[in-house]
Amino acid sequence: LPFLPEAPKPSSPLPRAAAAAAAAMDKSMLGDLDGLPEEDKMRMAAMIEQLQIRDSLRMYNNLVERCFTDCVDTFRRKTLDKQEESCVRRCAEKFLKHSMRVGMRFAELNQGVATPD
């Protein structure tokens, strides 16, 4: 059963870059709603934001579960040993880089679909 902690605070440029890409995607998605009344635009923006928060928490929980399962073998101590800590760090970096790359790729594909040739 996954837990829902607070969203992680960006500590490296990688999560900040992903957040910037998501913000740019928001603007492009909302740009397609020009014909809607302002109230509907606001409702749609709030729905998109809620979906993004849910997806971010889901991704974070998957990251925690996967890296913990892969890297932590025993519970000898309260804290991680150096090998476990290093493994978790590498796992998290790899997971975030992969997620960012997939997000960028989807954005590229979305741009290609949105731009008529």
From TrEMBL:
Enumerate the subcellular locations listed in this protein's record, separating them with semicolons.
Mitochondrion inner membrane
Pfam families per record: zf-Tim10_DDP
Source organism, top-level taxon: Eukaryota
- List residues traversing the bilayer: none
GO CC annotations? mitochondrial inner membrane
Q: What is its main location?
A: mitochondrion
Domain Tim10-like spans what residues? 47-108
Explain the purpose of this protein. Mitochondrial intermembrane chaperone that participates in the import and insertion of some multi-pass transmembrane proteins into the mitochondrial inner membrane. Also required for the transfer of beta-barrel precursors from the TOM complex to the sorting and assembly machinery (SAM complex) of the outer membrane. Acts as a chaperone-like protein that protects the hydrophobic precursors from aggregation and guide them through the mitochondrial intermembrane space. Mitochondrial intermembrane chaperone that participates in the import and insertion of multi-pass transmembrane proteins into the mitochondrial inner membrane. May also be required for the transfer of beta-barrel precursors from the TOM complex to the sorting and assembly machinery (SAM complex) of the outer membrane. Acts as a chaperone-like protein that protects the hydrophobic precursors from aggregation and guide them through the mitochondrial intermembrane space.
Record flagged with keyword Disulfide bond: yes
What does the subunit section of this Swiss-Prot or TrEMBL entry state?
Heterohexamer; composed of 3 copies of TIM9 and 3 copies of TIM10, named soluble 70 kDa complex. The complex associates with the TIM22 component of the TIM22 complex. Interacts with multi-pass transmembrane proteins in transit.
Name of the protein: Mitochondrial import inner membrane translocase subunit
Could you tell me the membrane topology recorded for this protein? Peripheral membrane protein
Give the UniProt family note. Belongs to the small Tim family.
- Extract one GO molecular function annotation from the record: metal ion binding
Q: What is known of its domains?
A: The twin CX3C motif contains 4 conserved Cys residues that form 2 disulfide bonds in the mitochondrial intermembrane space.
Query: Which keywords accompany this UniProt record?
Result: Chaperone, Disulfide bond, Membrane, Metal-binding, Mitochondrion, Mitochondrion inner membrane, Protein transport, Translocation, Transport, Zinc
Does Membrane show up as a keyword for this record? yes
Q: Which GO terms describe its biological process?
A: protein transport
